[in-house]
Amino acid sequence: MGKIIGIDLGTTNSCVAVMDGDKPRVIENAEGDRTTPSIIAYTNDNEILVGQPAKRQAVTNPKIPCLQSNV
User: Fold this and answer.
1) What is the distance between the terminal CA atoms of the chain, rounded to a whole angstrom?
2) pLDDT of residue 5
3) Which residues are 14's β-sheet partners?
4) At CA 27, angle to CA 26 and CA 29, rounded to 5?
């Protein structure tokens, strides 16, 4: 059987899971979390932040542009 992947693009959080044998397994993100906040931010240096780093930037530096799906 081919590989199966599921993607949940939620309005608050998103996550990805794969079938590991006969059981689904949620893949952890780079920070070790099973869900990622559905938000991106752009820094003054044109860096793109995704997930928790973007959420932290939105709190600590509210003047940078952020896009969040549930806003």
Assistant:
1) 40
2) 95
3) 9, 36
4) 130
Q: Which two tokens stand for residue 11?
A: 């309005």
Read off the DSSP letter of residue 6. E
pLDDT given at position 51: 93
pLDDT of 41: 87
- Which residue is associated with the tokens 């003047």? 63
* All structural domains of the chain: 5-68 (3.30.420.40)
Q: Mind giving me the DSSP string for 7-61?
A: EEE-SSEEEEEEEETTEEEEPP-TTS-S-EESEEEE-TT--EEESHHHHHHHHH-
Alpha-carbon span 19 to 39, nearest angstrom: 26
Please state, in angstroms and rounded to a whole number, the distance separating the CA atoms of residues 61 and 59.
Answer: 6
